[in-house]
Design goal:
Strand order of the largest sheet: 3-2-5
Order of helices and strands: HHEEEEEEEHHHHEHHHHH
Shape: rod-shaped
Structural class: alpha+beta
Radius of gyration: 49 Å
Mean pLDDT: 75
Low-confidence stretches: 1-21, 23-27, 292-318, 332-339
Strand content: 15-25%
């Protein structure tokens, strides 16, 4: 266990009150001098009694959330909880210590990362005093000490990591900072609750370079996605071409679908190749022959319809539409060509 070099007591143990402080003051001033100072202090307390209601005189008000540290002849005597106290102004002094959570900002400073990049970082520390006597006598100013220690520890942690780790693993770095601060402030009477890296700033040139790298990565990913889509589309088209090769009629129907999509755009002229018109004419003839042989004569058809009533076409609507369009395409144009 670590020992306090000045007093020879374990650092984990609280400071022991000196009682009257005679063992320290006797070597500095005679007993008569100390008695006179104490008497003058008691006299001042008596004279200031009428003014105590105005908080004038040797009084100390310790508010809630604070603790008073009482010393006699400069020696620690005891702690004062919140309340009103009257002390001997000639021999005693009261120093108040805040017991609430305190925020200590670490100023912005330049640091060098592991990959030799310059960054500007700042942080904030959250501490709480757990032992007022140690926070008063073990360190001159615990707030300033924590601030300087946090700044130096932050520089050390930044130098051990590269730039990407600073952005990706900030939570882990904050935990490492907190643990280091707790280990080094264990004997100061303060407890470090957390140390947070607040902001990391890099140079403008480095920001532009990182933006270019990110843009290049996005473009590369986009090209890969487009290439994968084209590969899948080519595979699907190859399967479709193989299927149409086994069924020649499917190719003609695909030609017709293309013509219909073109005609939907209200173009004035559509050029249809003979390789499409010829097979469509054959398709019309095959539909006519397969639908019931020779057509009836107009008169016979009229007599049959008048005697039997209206006759409904039982062919499917899709087949009727295909037949009508095929007839229109297969019919020769008035000018002698296909349009």
């Amino acid at each position: 266990m670590a020992m306090d070099q000045a007093e020879g007591t374990p650092m984990s143990q609280p400071l022991i009150a000196s009682g009257t402080g005679d063992e320290v003051a006797s070597g500095v001033a005679p007993k008569t001098y100390r008695t006179i100072l104490q008497a003058w202090g008691e006299l001042v307390k008596v004279l200031c009694c009428p003014l105590l209601c105005c908080e004038i005189g040797p009084i100390a008000v310790v508010e809630q959330g604070w603790v008073g540290v009482l010393t006699r002849f400069g020696v620690y005597e005891r702690q004062l909880p919140p309340g009103l106290y009257v002390y001997n102004c000639m021999t005693q002094k009261v120093k108040q210590v805040c017991m609430k959570m305190q925020t200590i900002e670490v100023p912005r400073q330049a640091a060098m990362t592991k990959d030799n990049l310059s960054v500007q970082v700042d942080a904030v520390s959250f501490i709480t005093v757990v032992d007022p006597s140690r926070a008063t006598f073990r360190v001159e100013s615990y707030q300033h000490a924590v601030k300087i220690l946090a700044a130096s520890t932050l520089l050390r942690v930044i130098g051990e990591h590269d730039l990407l780790e600073l952005f990706r693993e900030r939570n882990r770095l904050n935990g490492a900072l907190t643990q280091m601060m707790q280990d080094k402030t264990a004997g100061w009477g303060v407890q470090v609750a957390a140390v947070e890296i607040r902001d990391i700033t890099i140079a403008d040139t480095m920001q532009r370079a990182m933006a270019q790298i990110a843009e290049a990565n996005r473009e590369a990913e986009a090209k890969v996605i487009v290439a994968q889509g084209q590969k899948r589309a080519a595979s699907i088209l190859a399967d479709a071409a193989a299927e149409m090769g086994r069924e020649p009629l499917a190719m003609q129907l695909q030609w017709f679908e293309t013509l219909r999509s073109i005609s939907a755009e209200k173009n004035s002229t559509v050029i249809v190749p003979d390789s499409v018109v010829g097979p469509l004419g054959d398709l019309v003839k095959s539909m006519r022959q397969g639908g019931g042989g020779q057509r009836r004569e107009p008169a016979a058809a009229a007599r049959s319809s008048s005697s039997a009533g209206e006759h409904e076409d039982t062919s499917p609507p899709a087949e009727q539409a295909w037949l009508q369009v095929a007839q229109m395409v297969a019919a020769p144009a008035p000018g002698g060509g296909a349009q």
